[in-house]
Design goal:
mainly alpha
Length: about 200
């Protein structure tokens, strides 16, 4: 695990996350979330490495994946490749106002199906759910124009995916974090009611 941490730290040294902080901070928090869920070491390793191969130039991406395979084996390389493929899915829910509600729901459903098809391994999906939990915990640090879309995507796409996987705790966490951001006053009122 130390070799993975050293490699990830070196790979992410010039990479920033949506919040502006070094990407390694996000990866470590995701690893902590996965550890709390009692996931295996391979999943935690992939969590730490999954953005290393997220390179837009295909040639550089292949070189990076070959490097990962040499250092950590084929399985780690394969899962890192699948995880980086998921990063390239465009999740945006921006829907033309002229579209009907049913087509918006259809678009969300298609994104969920595509998500599972590309992942090919449930561990990748769980890593993405951990990334969303961490993202929602730090949403106020994201660029302002991105915050609302991120929260809506979390509520409409990721919480239902967690539900489909039987991860009720993850689903509830994602819903609570999204609701708290999107409907702050109502969330505080409900929290107050719940605490009394």
């Amino acid at each position: 695990l130390m070799e993975v941490l050293d490699y990830a730290t070196e790979s992410y040294k010039n990479t920033t996350w949506l919040s502006g902080e070094n990407y390694m901070d996000h990866a470590l928090r995701m690893a902590h979330i996965l550890q709390a869920m009692d996931l295996d070491l391979t999943t935690i390793i992939i969590c730490l490495l999954y953005n290393v191969a997220n390179i837009s130039k295909e040639e550089q991406r292949k070189i990076k994946l070959e490097e990962i395979e040499k250092k950590f084996g084929y399985q780690i390389k394969d899962l890192a490749d699948k995880a980086s493929a998921l990063n390239r899915i465009y999740y945006s829910l921006a829907i033309d106002v002229k579209e009907k509600k049913s087509s918006a729901e259809e678009k969300v459903e298609n994104i969920k199906k595509m998500f599972f098809a590309i992942a090919g391994d449930l561990r990748i999906v769980i890593i993405k759910l951990a990334a969303r939990i961490d993202g929602m915990n730090h949403i106020k640090q994201f660029p302002e124009d991105m915050q609302k879309t991120y929260a809506i995507e979390t509520l409409k796409i990721f919480a239902p995916i967690a539900n489909r996987l039987g991860l009720g705790g993850v689903k509830s966490t994602l819903e609570d974090l999204s609701f708290a951001y999107l409907y702050e006053d109502k969330f505080l009122w409900l929290k107050l009611l719940q605490d009394t």
